[in-house]
Amino acid sequence: MLAAHTSAVLPRMPRSMEIFRRCKVHWKKRGTILTRRTAIIAALIHSRDGIVSRLSAVAREALPADQRRFHDAVRAIRRRPVSGPFIVTMNGSPDLAARIAHLGHYFHSRGQADESILPLRVRAFIALVGARALDAPYEWAAWVNWALEARVPQDTVDVIREGRTPVSLTDEEALLARLCTELVSGSHRLSDATYSAALERYGRQGIVELVVTLGYFAMIAMPLNAFEMEMSAEQKAGRKPFAPLEIKGSPYSDEGAGFFNPPPPAARAAVTRLPLRASHEDVAPEHQHFLDRIVRTRGWIAPLFQVLLHTPDVAERIAHLGAFLLYDGSLSAETRLLVGLIAAQELDCDYVRSACSGMARCAGLEDVFGTAIANGGSPAGTADHRLLLSFCHALLRGNHHVSEAVYRDCVARLGMAATVQVSVLLGYCVMAALVANAFGITSGADQDRPLL
């Protein structure tokens, strides 16, 4: 997922021409005619060092009447204006934006009673490590001052931002850094030593929340990076000055890479590290309603959620988000399957690969995707397949940003709403893969029921 990849430097238009082109296209679709000067000024509001945010906020009044309730929900849940990831997801689906806001509030509830059992300092440290690993400047900007306020030392923040090897971490920070690094690199699995140390320090619910916190920040980085979102002037004005996160390297390109089928994934021992919570008897009475809500959308408690139910509220929020992405959104079954396969391949996740196998059977797509699922490779399919691969690979490789050419082609072929949903679905599958890999979750024999 985060291995080094090389790519050619992509040519850029002159900055003013590029800003004007994006702004003109964006507003022309909305039926508004802009002068060249007005377009450039409007786009510069959303620019960062020549990189222009690719989306603008959708005003509540511009939404269909039956969708405005979701806009209201985002504002109410967050106690703040719509910004950042919610600008992106509101362009994809207001319902999707509200579901992400509900999940995100579990980790973000600053100034209110914390919902997560993890201290803010721990969540903020993970946010910074995740932002650096995924070259996510918006998340860095959102969390860096909260990390400092939670007493993460400035020297530690600088080391993370600059990508240097830390030398003066506390024991807890060193453990968190190891946990995050092991999951986002190498085999994408936790060593026994790291797992045991985290379990001893944080307990069962705590270690699940550690992994899910990292997974949430990885998920939200996908749409933020895909659409080059940045903070507004108003957001920055409300924060103390901080050193921004530099995006290193170039967007990854699939051009010339071809399609490949690597050797079949290595067999692994089927040992789940935590007791599974599959029925009402496994869950405290006051938490059984969370289990019921998961069953309502999937018909059962899949192994992934049997582990997530160690933190029941989070499990239900993740299930609610996943229900939209997998069942209620506008993406085709083929698109969902391909995005899931890409995540499974990049993170070498047997569980997500098994979920894709079940999705292929249910959708009648085994002939198209069967070989790729079995071998862990990529289907040598249509032009749309290749475009999705390029878009998703760019978010998972290189500097985790998408070139203008790939972005433009994706929006032209899929439409804006579907492109947003693809970026969030990719993040959701990455989050699921991180959890599955961390805890050794296996799909079991029953793969005909939903696993994600």
List the helices and strands and how they pair.
Elements: H1 15-28, H2 36-44, E1 47-48, E2 51-52, H3 68-78, H4 85-92, H5 94-108, H6 120-133, H7 137-149, H8 154-162, H9 171-184, H10 192-226, H11 233-237, H12 288-298, H13 303-308, H14 312-328, H15 333-346, H16 350-363, H17 366-375, H18 383-396, H19 404-414, H20 416-439
Antiparallel strand pairs: 1-2
How would you describe the overall organization of this protein?
The protein has a domain at 280-439: AhpD-like (Up-down Bundle), CATH 1.20.1290. Helix content is 59%, strand content 1%. The chain has helices spanning 15-28, 36-44, 68-78, 85-92, 94-108, 120-133, 137-149, 154-162, 171-184, 192-226, 233-237, 288-298, 303-308, 312-328, 333-346, 350-363, 366-375, 383-396, 404-414, 416-439, and strands at 47-48, 51-52. It has a two-stranded antiparallel sheet. The relative contact order is 0.13. Mean pLDDT is 85; it is low at 3-50 and 258-264.
Keywords summarizing the entry:
452 residues, mainly alpha, 1% strand, AhpD-like, two-stranded antiparallel sheet
